[in-house]
Amino acid sequence: MDILNAFVAFLNFVFVPGLAYGSQLALGALGVTLIFGVLRFSNFAHGDTMAFGTAFVILFTWWFKSMGISAGPLPTALLALPFGIAVTAAFVLGTDRVVYRFYRQKKAAPIILVIASAGVMFVMNGLVRMIIGTEEQNFADGARFLLEPKAFKEWSGLAEPLAIKSTAAVTVVVAAICVAALFWFLQRTRTGKSMRAFSDNEDLALLSGINPDRVVQVTWIIAAALAVIAGTLYGLDKSYRPFIYFTLLLPIFAAAVVGGLGSPLGAIAGGYIIAFSEVIFTNAWKKVAGYLLPADWLGDGLLQALSTDYKSAVSFSILIIVLIFMPTGIFKGK
Amino acid sequence: MKKLLLASVAMSAMSGAAMAEDVKLGVLIGFTGAIESLTPQMAAAAELAMAEVNASGKAANGWNFVSVRGDTTCTDAAVAQASAERMVTADGVKGIIGGDCSGVTRAVLQNVARPNGIVMISPSATSPALSTDEDDGLFFRTAPSDAREGEVVADILLEHGVKSIALTYTNTDFGKGQSEFISKFFTEKGGKVTINASHDDGKADYSAEVAALAAAGGDILVVAGYLDQGGKGIIQASLDSGAFSTFYLPGGMIGDSLPLAIGPALDGSYGDIASSDADGNAVLKDISSKLATPFDSTSSYASESYDAAALIMLAMQAAGSTDPKVYKDKVMEIANGPADGSGEKINPGELGKALELIAAGKAINYEGATGVNFVGNGEAAGRYKEIVVKDSKNETVKYH
């Protein structure tokens, strides 16, 4: 019984939150890694693209709700997703036309594109605040729990509750579908293959008749879609505040770098590595240990490696360690 | 010409008569600076009390109270001390209503009031440090110390049979102070605080903070935060993970938006907020709104300012002297009345009656606009409303 209690406490406070957060980071990191692979620069505006897209998803959600449309037990935001993606894709294609294309045609060094993306980031930052404001928005609706903590306690007879929020479950399912669809697209379709070819060797790809403009456009559209989905899932599961998305940039880049920039598989692995490291290092293990160890071994401490305030320090440390000792990441990126 | 002469003669005669019995009281608050939006109402309230006493004509020896204003700037102790020094030495005030912010109040008390032996009654300084500062019996305040809420929280928790609490606070001076006193008093009264951890406002996700609180455990989670910030996030994350189901909500967490945002899951949680049920509050509001130049007595610390001025004047009446060294001993007596509760209750607007009663040798219990009741060495106990969340609404249980 004690072992079961310890296991449930682990699931409830470490595994479930880590899995949901990891899926959100993985989707964000996939977008970053795609842009890096095909367009060859780190897109600093990615966090704000997430905020921008999510803002529109929220606006569409409100509109749907005002018309009485809902998705039953699922969040209405899922219905609004395609519309948010369409607006965001149009916007990033516009920025590519206005900002990035100029530097690409001049064959500017990647660092110049990075700085340009920082400029785009600030512009989007301001736009989002003008569109939806700086305050917190809660737009989750539908059923709150897939597994209610009280119901679980009564059913299992354990002392520890287990809760699975429906938004966490939706996050994991949607992330799995997106990843599967993306890999199918990259491996099996003509456009996907041309993207990979363009990423591997630009000159060779151009020689074999691949249209570079089309590859760039498709990349932006996919990156925008991933950003909006990641942002919406994060906002549903936690809460939406434009500033938070800006700070998400750090764990997302850490995830992409740990996995290896340019490697989609690495981005996914990196997302989960960063998420679980943050949770494991800042979790107070006293509860789990209390069930497994004799009481007199425990002492008064919370068995917490780092205070929760240092959550982002964990992803920052991992980022630095990987850059020093394994700059290409786990999956040998660029 | 004749008229003018007559008028000036009348004027000089009047002012001459008044001069003889003028008693000056200092109003030492921050007319400029951080709380300059509150001070006009505070000064108006204090001067309203003086005007009321003057109009009644019941003060002993025909005293006529005159207000002398001085600026503290709320933050600059040097300016505040200079203003106080001027009041005392140049204007010759017999008592000071003020200071306002705790820092300048402490400085004025130590460097001006104590050396000169002047009584100070602050309407708004709430720092717990002022409870223990040396004051030679000269310092009082009509606003409760910040520490008081901690004591009230501990009492309410123990009344509910809570034996151990997990405590989390917003990472600000406000939250830190609040949690410190809740923890201190709850421990002193025999309870156990399993954890006292901060949380930052404005985060999207509080599941990690809640996991640490859950690991420490406790009968109830005390959330000393803000209701539309991290406090709400902590409660939501606790409910989402099943870590805690009942919450204690101190002052910063009481508001209509919280039960609405959280929903039925918050029902049964309870808390408190500083709030006076004194009848005098409404009376003062009524009086102040009907003045020739009306002001809003419900503005923060305005009622406390009225009470501070009234206490000084009534204490002078009771002592029969305007000498601070004499009347300082009467302040507690006026504020609380005799221990057997026989003192006649005095509301705003009844200062003339109070003066008469004192002159007749009868005991009074000054309630004023805030239900004045002094504890310790002369500071307001404050009134706190105990609240329980029922059907997603805050309902008042009782007053503490």
From TrEMBL, chain A:
It comes from Fuscibacter oryzae. It is found in: Cell membrane. This is Branched-chain amino acid ABC transporter permease. It comes from the Bacteria. One of its GO terms (cellular component) is plasma membrane. GO terms for biological process: D-alanine transmembrane transport; L-alanine transport; L-isoleucine import across plasma membrane. The chain crosses the membrane at residues 6-39, 51-71, 77-99, 111-132, 162-186, 215-236, 313-331. It holds the Pfam family BPD_transp_2.
UniProtKB/TrEMBL annotation, chain B:
GO terms for biological process: amino acid transport. InterPro entries: BCAA_transport, Leu-bd, Peripla_BP_I. Keywords: Amino-acid transport, Signal, Transport. Residues 23-325 form the Leucine-binding protein domain. Pfam families: Peripla_BP_6. Belongs to the leucine-binding protein family. This is ABC transporter substrate-binding protein.
